[in-house]
Amino acid sequence: MRLLLAIHSLGCGGAERVLSTLANAWAERGHEITLLTFADGPSFYKLNSRVSIIHLGLAGNSASHVAALGANARRVACLRKQITDKRPDVFISFMVHCNILTLLASIGTGVPTIVCEHNDPSQYVIGPIWSSLGLLTYPFADAVTFLTENVLQRWRWLRNASVMPNPIVVGESSSEDLPDWPEGSRRMLAVGRLATVKGYDRLLSAFQQVARRFPDWSLTILGEGPERRNLEQQVRALGLMSRISMPGNVKDPFIWMKEADLFVMSSHYEGLPCVLGEAMACGLPAISFDCDSGPRDMIRHEVDGLLVPPNDVPALVNAMERLMSDEGARAGLAKRAPEIMDRYGLKIVLQRWDELFGRLCVTQASTYKQGEVRCAE
């Protein structure tokens, strides 16, 4: 089967991680995988040598609405040329802006097109023009996937919508990016982009409230982003420079997860966070705000982690105190946490993709002439 995958860039975000995981898995199965990206530069995540990458070189901001219109027209034309040249069995796009451009490019090509939402669309703003284009183009996709049932409910009016969760994969730990934690200390870990949506200012405030009672605990936040300076200033203001570290992006987060004692997610909203699933798969007890989507689908409250009411920092502090002070409670949650692989492991998610490809074959058979049907293997 020939698969064409598209995404804006190959950075270190969650969607890029999912795309890389799926591309590698499909390549291992012997499928022909071509990955399109608007941006230049290498992939942050390791890709199978059998995955072909085409850098379209069309990334960048525009100086005006007119310039943006021209830039997006070129992107659509370039995507369409790749579709007609490659003639894939299925074209899959990731993230909303790329999704819209992909759907415009695929009009009339006869190639089944899947677009994937990797966040909760109700929680982020993309502007009235892009929002309107999404409403206009998404009905023309052969399938639109959302990460959770809760998000899907808001898009039930789409006949082609379904749930497709992110796969959870735990890689083998290497000697790269070894944690520099004090001997004998307890380690609290958070992982994600240093952005406002991740709520790390709230996490720092919560840690400050428990730091004096638990002097042997440290907090590490892995990731990089625009809020680094503000967060570093907050750490200094709290007087916790020796207790809180932000090493940036790391190639191997799993060694950190396997050596940590507690995972905390403080986001304002999430899609279906891979890092939370990976931490749980590594046997970490987890605490998270009960966002509308994501953590509540992954954490089974009081079974393998704790959910606290959204935006309730005192409740977060209480949950942290409870687990920091009770090794037995942490161990009990940690024992059940790896069971998340039974629900979101790569094999399970690939089966769901196979089912979706199969449904697309049936749909196409009823739409196109018999000689034009391209069934997924």
Tell me which oligomeric state these chains represent.
single chain
Globular, elongated, flat, extended or rod-shaped: what is the shape? globular
Q: Please identify, by name, the CATH architecture of the largest domain.
A: 3-Layer(aba) Sandwich
* CATH fold-level label of the largest domain: Rossmann fold
Element-level helix/strand string: EHEEHEHEHEHEEHEHEHEHEHEHHHH
Q: State which percent range the strand residues make up.
A: 15-25%
What would you report as the Rg, rounded to the nearest angstrom?
22 Å
**What is the CATH homology-level superfamily of the largest domain?**
Glycogen Phosphorylase B
Spatial gap, N to C terminus: 6 Å
Indicate how many domains the architecture comprises: 2
Determine the mean pLDDT: 90
Going by helix content, strand content and strand pairing, the class is alpha/beta
The helix fraction, in percent, is 25-40%
Overall CATH class of the largest domain = Alpha Beta
Q: Strand order within the widest sheet? A: 3-2-1-4-5-6-7
Question: Please, how many helices?
Answer: 14
Low-confidence stretches: 365-377
**How does the major sheet shape up?**
7 strands, parallel
Total strand count, please?
A: 13
Please explain how this structure is put together.
The chain is an alpha/beta fold and 377 residues long. It folds into two domains: 2-167 and 345-372, Rossmann fold, CATH 3.40.50; 186-343, 3-Layer(aba) Sandwich (Rossmann fold), CATH 3.40.50. It is globular and about 65 Å long. It has 14 helices and 13 strands. Helix 2 crosses helix 3 and helix 6 (200-211) runs parallel beside helix 7.
